[in-house]
Amino acid sequence: MKIGILCYPTYGGSGIVATELGMSLADKGYEVHFISSALPARLDVTNPNIFFHKVNVQTYPLFQYQPYDIALSSMIYRVVNLYKLDILHAHYAIPYAYAAFTAKQMLKAEHKDVPLVTTLHGTDITLVGQHPSYKHAVEFSINQSDTITSVSESLKKDTLQFFNIHKEIQVITNFIDNSVFDDCKTCQREQFASDDEKILIHVSNLRPVKRIQDVLEIFRNVNRKVQSKLVIIGEGPEMEKINQFLEENPELIGKIKLLGKVNDLYRILQLSDVFLLPSEQESFGLAALEAMAAKTPVISSNAGGIPEVNIQGETGFLAEIGNVEAMSNYCIKLLSNEELLAEMKKNAKAQALKFDLKNILPIYIEMYETTIAKFEEAKLIGAGN
Ligand code: GMT
Question: Which residues form the Glycosyltransferase subfamily 4-like N-terminal domain (predicted)?
Answer without folding.
Answer: 11-177
